[in-house]
Design goal:
This protein has about 375 residues and is mostly helical. Among the domains are: about 120 residues, Actin-binding Protein, T-fimbrin, domain 1 (Orthogonal Bundle); about 120 residues, Calponin-like domain (Actin-binding Protein, T-fimbrin, domain 1, Orthogonal Bundle). About 45% of the residues lie in helices and about 5% in strands. The chain contains 13 helices and 3 strands, in the order H-E-H-H-H-H-H-H-E-E-H-H-H-H-H-H. The chain has a 3-stranded antiparallel sheet. The radius of gyration is 28 Å and the shape is globular. Belongs to the parvin family.
């Protein structure tokens, strides 16, 4: 699917002529300097090779020599090849490829290799357009490496905005374009989870990452475990359709009436602590109003140390909403169909489901 990187043209071998002049003294000095630099590069490559292949290392890596050339304190990571042979990793790759091909079947796009077919951003663009239902304002086809990087940057910026992701990201233009399979898997898993892909992602998939660092002129390595998937309660499956799906699909004109009823309900109780909701779409996404509302409905005080009153990042907001979900279950409500990430990412349908669940139980409460 993806076109190979353009290769720099190489000129053919130049044969030396017999009548060439003998090397001058300064020519010889230049030749010695080049030989010294070549020797230094070879020594660095050998040093890196020895660090990678030293005793106690789990696996020999097939790494290009240029990847050994590190500056002082520079760090580089690569996946241990044996990790790719792990059956769970292979299963995850297979599931993600099948999902992408199902999504893009109507465009006759077939992904066979998850790195070679996705690194240039072309397939990722089509996948995002299909999942979001919106056309991305990016060039359709780019052949040059610089053009591919620019396009990939635009596609990843869109993905980060849609996912509600904040730095540090587990993927980047450089990592995707260099065919880093770990970064590609992280991105695809996040997209599959966010858009509720109708697939079962294998759980607790991890890989071994080799991190090589140059310290005091020596290359040292360490092995770290990188988690790709966790345990999921919903196994990545879409929830069964409910009244809110029907409302959004077939009666959007009634949505304003539902929102007005829910705003009236929550303000009746939040007004007791001088709070007011005016924007149902946005004011519950950090979990604060949700936690305070639960305390008011059940008549208990939620210690401020249990949640972030002024959450500053994505993780703190997810913590708040997850904590609110725990409170709901403790007071006897069913576990919400939505995920905390859905609420934080401003998914209106998920927010309405959660609030309607509270409305159904407490609508008669004064």
């Amino acid at each position: 699917m993806a076109s190979p990187r353009p290769k720099s043209p190489r000129s053919g071998p130049v044969s030396a002529k017999k009548d060439d002049k003998e090397e001058s003294f300064w020519d010889k000095i230049g030749t010695l300097g080049r030989k010294k630099r070549i020797k230094e590069v070879q020594e660095v490559q050998e040093e890196g090779k020895n660090a990678i292949e030293s005793p106690g290392f789990a696996a020999n890596l097939d790494v290009p020599p240029e990847d050994y050339n590190l500056e002082e304190n520079e760090e580089r990571s690569m996946i241990a090849p044996k990790s790719l042979e792990n059956p769970k990793v292979q299963e995850l790759i297979h599931v993600l490829i099948e999902w992408i091909n199902d999504e893009l079947a109507d465009q006759r796009i077939i992904v066979k290799d998850i790195t070679e077919d996705l690194y240039d951003g072309q397939v990722l663009q089509k996948l995002l357009e299909k999942l979001t239902g919106k056309k991305l304002d990016v060039p359709e086809v780019t052949q040059s490496e610089e053009g591919q990087r620019q396009k990939l940057c635009m596609v990843l910026n869109t993905a980060n905005r849609v996912l509600g992701s904040y730095p540090p990201y587990k993927w980047s233009v450089e990592s995707i374009h260099s065919r880093n399979i770990v970064a590609i898997l992280h991105l695809l898993v996040c997209l599959a989870r966010f858009f509720r892909a109708p697939v079962r992602l294998p759980e607790l998939v991890s890989v071994q990452i080799v991190v090589v660092t140059k310290k005091d002129g020596q290359l040292v390595h360490r092995i770290v475990k990188e988690e790709i998937t966790r345990t999921y309660d919903d196994l990545g499956m879409r929830c069964e359709r409910d009244a809110f799906d029907a409302l959004f699909d077939y009666a959007p004109e009634k949505l304003a009436v539902v929102k007005k009823s829910l705003i009236t309900f929550v303000n009746k109780h939040l007004s007791k602590v001088h709070l007011e909701v005016t924007d149902l779409d946005n004011q519950f996404h950090d979990g604060v109003f949700l936690i305070l509302l639960l305390g008011l409905l059940e008549g208990f005080f939620v210690p401020l140390g249990n949640f972030y009153l002024t959450p500053k990042n994505y993780e703190q907001k997810v913590h708040n909403v997850a904590f609110a979900f725990e409170l709901m279950q403790e007071i006897g409500l069913c576990k919400p169909k939505a995920r905390p990430e859905d609420i934080v990412n401003l998914d209106l349908k998920s927010t309405l489901r959660v609030l309607y669940n509270l409305f159904s139980k407490y609508k008669a409460l004064n």
